[in-house]
Structure formats: structure tokens, C-alpha cells
Model the fold of this input.
Amino acid sequence: MTSVVPKGIILPLMPFLDDQLNYDFPAVEHHVDSAIRKGVTGIFVLTTCGQQGSFSLDENKELSQVVKETVAERVPVYV
Done:
């Protein structure tokens, strides 16, 4: 097994919610893209505020996929 030590600024993603308390994917995409343009070197998904426990596994997988697609291999994504 290879060990990787993250370097730089790793953003713990705060998932944005819409008015119906669902993940707000456009807001997440904007935030992730903006953070990368400003210099973050990685994104942690599903790590803050315990919100992921309020969503189904499928919803959390969808959030992770949206982040991965938005990142487009520019920085590592940690789930």
C-alpha cells in the first residue's frame, strides 16, 4: 500500500443546501471551482458538520460524483 501525505490547503467541503434542504449542486460546483482557482490543493467531501448523515447513500454518492466531475482531476478529491 502506498501512503500519500496531502500537502497545501485541503478544503473540507461544506455542502450547500437549497430551499428544500437538498444538496445545491450548482452552488457546490461554483464553490469548488472557485476554491481551486484560488489555490486549494485538495477537496475533502462529506467531512464537515455531519450533514452527510442526514442524506441517503445515493445522495452522498451523487454529491461526491458532482465534486469529482467539477474538480476534473485538477486536485485530489478525498471522500
